[in-house]
Amino acid sequence: MQKIYAIEKTSPIEEISVGEIADVLTRDDAFVWVDLQSADAADLEEFARIFQLDPDSISDCFEGEQRPRIDDYDAYHLLFLYGMLGQIDSDEFDPHKLVVFVGPRFLITVHESPIRTLQQLRSKAQRRPKLFPRASVWHLLYALIDQIVDNYIVFMQACEERVDQLEDQSLAPDCEPEILQQSAALRAMLSEIRHLVHAEDQLIAMTIVELADFLDDDIVFDFRHVRDHLIAVGELSDRLRDRLNTVRDNYSFILANRTNEIMKILTIFASIMLPLSLIAGIFGMNLKLGPLEHEPLGLWIVLGVMFCIGAGLFAFFRRKHWL
Q: How many CB atoms lie under 10 A from the CB of residue 189?
């Protein structure tokens, strides 16, 4: 699926056809944005001819997962970003590769799955005709990266809510062992986010250097502001990982306390039963023992004594607040 947009100064974003690209490029205050989803080699080769893209850069679109980076070609730059999918799920972090070709008059985005960032950016551009006031492709590139980072922040907020839930569950008396698996999975995901935002931050730093001849001071300032957001995302990831250690400690404490309570109850019952078992053992021996041997009520007397001993021990334990 392909969508082609003409973006012109203070004009609404306009969807155009392939044949209209040449006309748009003749205007000084306009540029072209091409969005390719699930594109094959033939689709890319068509736009490679129009925008004179290097064949090596085209092949990179079909290769496996790569770290965020920027490659410099003679007439354009190639960026590898990672954007959120169509929906943000707090239980799953699965950013997909977004390949961006950016030149002075065009920007091409290539991706396999629907990416939330592009959907939001298109909707924002249609609602706000002046989103790119100087009809600059570099403003679009900044808006794209900024939207990616904003979605990271939204995702981290969902992760923070999930950590809050795990902390509350870890303090519940009926906390289940599954909380450790959930905590470990979330911790691994936060570690992946930490590595990804660090790589994205390095990419933006390299973008500022590589595109220094094209970016004005305002865009450079905006990019640095995005870097501040990425640093905040990384710091939040570290804090949440530390809080997940607390979840594990809480569960261990609750488990140990639950075990101690069980052992205390079992010990008290064993303490009550021990003298009763001793009495039952003595009078159960096949020997002539004491005056109760021929007493008709001997059994009931022994049972009464055992009951009194048990009741006395139970009252003693309650008085000591052991029960």
A: 21
